[in-house]
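Handout for the seminar on molecular recognition.
Each group receives one record of this type.
Step one: identify the two inputs.
Step two: read the structure output and locate the region that could contact uridine-5'-diphosphate.
Step three: write two sentences on what you found, then compare them with the reference statements printed after the record.
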Amino acid sequence: MSVLVTGGAGYIGSHMTYALVDRGEKVVVLDDLSTGNRSLVSEQASLVEGDAGDEALVRRLIEEHGVDAAIHFAGSIVVPDSVAHPLGYYANNTVKSRALIEACVQAGVKHFIFSSTATVYDADAPQPLGEDAAKNPISPYARSKLMTEWMLEDASRAHDLSHMVLRYFNVAGADPKGRTGQSSPRATHLIKRAAQAALGRVPHLDIFGTDYPTRDGTGVRDYIHVGDLVDAHLLALDALRAGAPSSTFNCGYGHGASVREVIATVEKAIGRPLPVREGPRRAGDPPELIADPGRIKATLGWQPQRDDLDEIVRSALAWERRFNS
Ligand code: UDP
């Protein structure tokens, strides 16, 4: 029995792979290395360079490795790019996910875990967001994810497949053992950018909007440590293997931090001010996104271990120092 991890050379997928091998699972990583990095993949996993949408390849891997569960991280994730290149996003996220699900169904994989996003929700829905909150994905990225959720729902109804959709809020931080972290040089996410600015790798950090209707005028997000997110996947996998029904869960802590609070946390960690530049809002950014994690706690028994912005920031900085140093 082994687990197929698509996108396992990427940020979250590489953490997942370590967590799986750490508990003795056999893991096959399938990654096209377009944004992933070979060096982030645990040596105890089998790394196959290839396309998650290559049905023949996926079927062969499932058969060769005796895969019983797939965890699907591979995909494109930059929201503004998805607005500029919608068809590319639908091809890479939706069409390839369809092929992957098909290969899993045909080759007899019983369980599937899918990385979705809080951006499927209507940003105007009341916060915190429960799983049943109104949906209104605005970007092609968010739509490509919701379309894949629907494909999975339909496929699970029709075939011998059970799945879990995990809707991520703002994932940040790095492996406490320093084995992997966020490595994309083009990363756009706040904590990654702040860590780069802290180490002088980018000249300054932009604050995108200071006039939001929030406590200090900057955007508020529910930052979740990647380690807690990975734990949620392990619980989802165990539940599916134990016969749990297909379900959808939010992954966030239920409270948020503003951009200024994140900056203050980074400044505290490095002991000096960050070079920041205040600017206009970034198109499409809602003021606030906060999860209601009640369902995953009640159903899977998820208990966050690292719900601490200081720890998230410290681990992100430690990784940033190590990576490319
Ligand atoms: N943000 C910012 N400067 C940056 C990157 C992000 O001010 O360089 C803000 C962004 O407007 C949002 C929050 O930080 O309020 C989180 O943005 P991020 O891109 O990390 O994640 P998102 O919530 O967009 O997925």
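Reference statements: The chain has a mean pLDDT of 97. The pocket of uridine-5'-diphosphate is lined by residues 170, 188-190, 193, 205-209, 219, 221, 259, 282, 285 (CB under 6 Å).
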